[in-house]
Specification:
Arc Repressor Mutant, subunit A; 4 helices; about 65% helix
Length: about 80
């Protein structure tokens, strides 16, 4: 099984268990998987670029403001090591 198939399988299993326990509302599986893949791609690219937001946005082909919106949307935690001016 490829990494993508493995990821999708485990995401669907988690989603199904959450639905069965009534912890989440039903939603379209395509939307759920698309968002999980996008979140994973953003996290992996952040790590790859050393959490440099401008470089991450460039690699992903989006503007830094769009990247920031998606980081907030997916509640991705990023430590800020920059020195205050």
């Amino acid at each position: 099984m490829t990494y993508i198939k493995d990821f999708i399988y485990h995401s669907m299993e988690w989603h199904y268990q959450e639905l069965k326990s009534k912890k989440i509302k039903p939603e379209f599986m395509h939307d759920f998987i698309s968002e999980e893949v996008e979140k994973g791609l953003i996290c992996a690219t952040l790590e790859f670029t050393g959490f440099h937001l401008k470089n991450t946005a460039e690699v992903l082909g989006m503007s830094p403001s769009t990247l920031n919106k998606k980081i907030k949307k997916y509640d991705i935690f990023i430590l800020n090591f920059s020195q205050p001016k």
